[in-house]
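mind reviewing both lines:
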Amino acid sequence: MQSIRHLVYGFRPIGRQSLWNSMDCTKRLMCTSDANGKSVEKPQISLVDNPPALDKMVQNHDFQIDWDKEMHLIEVDEHECRGRSVLAPVDDESKIYAEPMLQPTFNLAAYVQKSETLQQLLNLGVNLHQLDKSLHTEFIATLDFQRDISPYVMFFTKDVGVSVEQMGKFLTKNPEILKRNLDDIQVRINYLQLKRFNQDEIVQIITKNPMWLNYPTREIDERLGFFQKDFDLIGNEVRALAVACPRLITHDMQEIRNISFSVREECCFEKHEVKNILLKCPKFWMMHRFDFMERYDFVSHHMKIENSQLAMTPFILTNRLFRIKERHGFLKHIKRAQYNPKLPLYISLDDLCIGTDETFAENIAKRPYEEFESYLRTL
């Protein structure tokens, strides 16, 4: 309140005498001197000694202000416009809940005790922390479970075959499904059935990739057609690809084309080898093109692995480059870097990259883990 009083006192009215004193000062500053040193006003400057409008405005006014009255009006205004202070005691606890229960928030957990909807979502296994990171937090907080969510849960669990345990993860990853019409979702399920996907395969598709049902049927059909035509797949192979890696079907198509160009044109894989890589390791096509080329360069030129062998064991190309370098370097150090299946002491490229370092050292390199650990410290 002291700061407000200070602010109000800072704006004092300008009296008539002080106003014209100021104007006289300005008038003196805007004068010039003649040859004899006498002050001469500039001819273009013309000041009226007593402007009528200003005279009318200031005459018969002493500008006396009742500051007690003014401060009282400010206090009344603050009370009416800004509402009750949060620090003021509450005489009626019912006033605390006079406003809506759920306000816009970025933390759903703060309203779990007040919201039956959030409690039911927790019972389903929905991760509220993950929902907080999405753009649907405010939307979820305003839903009624029985009216807005229960019909979707019943549809997916009873009609589609998704288990209750899977339903929680599904809604965590795709809360946007609650904004879509159930009839549209049914049409997209019917499309998969029409393409001869059985119930178990449909469940695997939508639980591995919950975003699948956000795509229109026409777009899904075009994407499946692209893979069938571009990689020369038959119907069963298309279905196997969609079930094994449904995220690939909805992946960015330009990135898929970039990888295909690198595999075919830059690395010179044969057509049947490209198809084999796709079916054996479909997530290979979701890699960044430059990451793939970096790994391919090391495996092909430093490890001397032929394309025909990579087409049969492409998993190595999806592993982190530092892991490939570390394990290959250790095998080379102990003279066991032998990847030809026709020769003794053969080490599979798949075995090279799976498992922990302890498993690799003891089961693949046949050396104590401490020896591998010591080697890593020399890098």
User: Anything to note?
Assistant: The beta strands are 31-33, 39-41. Residues 67-82 form the longest helix (16 residues). The longest strand covers residues 31-33.
